[in-house]
Automatic annotation (TrEMBL):
Top-level taxon in the UniProt lineage: Eukaryota
InterPro entries with a match to the protein in the record: Gfo/Idh/MocA-like_OxRdtase_N (IPR000683), GFO_IDH_MocA-like_dom (IPR055170), NAD(P)-bd_dom_sf (IPR036291)
The organism of origin for this protein: Medicago truncatula (Barrel medic)
PANTHER family per UniProt: NAD(P)-BINDING ROSSMANN-FOLD SUPERFAMILY PROTEIN (PTHR46368:SF5), PTHR46368
Domain Gfo/Idh/MocA-like oxidoreductase N-terminal intervals: 7-126
Protein name: Oxidoreductase family, NAD-binding rossmann fold protein
Coiled coil: none
Protein keywords: Oxidoreductase
Length: 363
């Protein structure tokens, strides 16, 4: 693939997650890093050296310069959530395609400003939910297909967690606990995955009601550190999803989906245990044997090998969409903006439920 065929990325900011995406872009055959910008040119230059970026990468001491760079096709935005709307809109207005970290915005009103700017300028939008791009995910999706006779049947129950242990330093100084930077806290940083996984399992049909549970914990500034919530679908199939997310618990990334005919489980749905492969198990037709002293079947384990890590697969898919728009005049895919918006709507509903004293909120 020639340099002309690749999608040229500019990175806005030097956050820790930007290191991961810089590596991903480098590993992706149809993408390259053209520019990196920070609030100080010395910080951007240090990032370039520490991440072994080629000498051809342009180093800027502001985000504006990256957005203005004619040699940049798309921007990756790992900035605090409070800055997403400003820089995503600015990038879209300069005809740059937008890959933004999750949560996509602080609320759906802000996200709509981003999506409207992207639509008006004919550029692709995608949020950085990497697990959706892993081949394991498409393998699992096959088992959710109601037309598949070997599937688990209509989904009835979903359980998901995203928890992580943190230090006192994190709880005092990390941007994810600062209301002026990432006011959603664990709801945006962690629950975005679990809400997204629940929507994914239901074919992105919005739940009927969303209810936050009263076990929420906050810091002194009011930012959510731990939260449990329930989503309920009434039609066409009744389904309940329970979600727990916390900055206080041992690391977990569980996803369990139970249907009328079977179930599937994985313990690492957000970040696989291994970079080059991932697995999940499923069970069909499980019953107890005589005297209830065991089961008639054991779970089957499916192993999925991937040539590129999931973050590179995300970049690859995004770059394919961008190249098709740039080189062939294709229209931006509406799939990814719609996924982000539905996820954001549920995040907003959880917030509203909390404000109402954990009463159900209808969608």
């Amino acid at each position: 693939m020639t340099e002309k065929d690749t999608v040229r990325f500019g990175i806005l900011g030097c956050a820790t997650i930007a290191r991961k995406l810089a590596r991903a872009i480098t590993l992706t055959p149809n993408a390259t890093i053209s520019a990196i910008g920070s609030r100080s040119i010395s910080k951007a230059a240090k990032f370039a050296v520490e991440n072994s970026l080629p000498a051809s990468v342009r180093i800027y001491g502001s985000y504006d310069e990256v957005v203005e760079d004619s040699g940049v096709d798309a921007v990756y935005i790992p900035l605090p959530t409070s800055l997403h709307v400003r820089w995503a809109v600015a990038a879209a207005n300069k005809k740059k395609h937008v890959l933004v970290e999750k949560p996509a915005a602080l609320d759906v009103a802000e996200l709509d400003l981003i999506l409207e700017a992207c639509e008006a300028n004919g550029v692709q939008f995608m949020d950085g939910c990497m697990w959706l791009h892993h081949p394991r995910t498409s393998n699992m999706k096959h088992l959710l297909d109601l037309s598949n006779s070997d599937g688990i049947g209509p989904v009835q129950f979903i359980h998901s967690t995203s928890t992580m242990p943190t230090t006192q330093e994190f709880l005092e100084n990390n941007i994810r606990v600062k209301p002026e930077l990432d006011a959603l806290g664990a709801l945006g940083d962690l629950a975005w995955y679990c809400i997204g996984a629940s929507l994914w399992a239901k074919g992105y049909k919005l739940p009927t009601t969303v209810t936050a549970l009263p076990d929420v914990t906050r810091n002194m500034a009011g930012v959510i550190l731990s939260i449990t919530t329930s989503l309920q679908w009434d039609q066409p199939n009744q389904t309940v999803a329970n979600i727990h997310c916390s900055f206080h618990s041992h690391t977990s990334m569980d996803l369990s989906i139970s249907g009328s005919n079977g179930s599937m489980h994985l313990k690492d749905f957000i970040i696989p245990y291994k970079e080059t492969s991932a697995s999940f198990d499923f069970t069909f037709g499980a019953k107890f044997v005589d005297l209830h002293i065991g089961w008639n079947v054991r779970p089957e384990e499916v192993h999925v090998v991937n040539k590129l890590p999931q973050e590179a697969l995300m970049v690859q898919e995004f770059a394919m969409l961008v190249a098709s728009i740039r080189d062939s005049g294709s229209q931006p895919s509406i799939k990814w903006p719609e996924i982000s918006r539905k996820t954001q709507l549920v995040v907003d509903a959880v917030k509203k439920s909390l404000e109402l004293g954990c009463k159900p909120v209808s969608l």
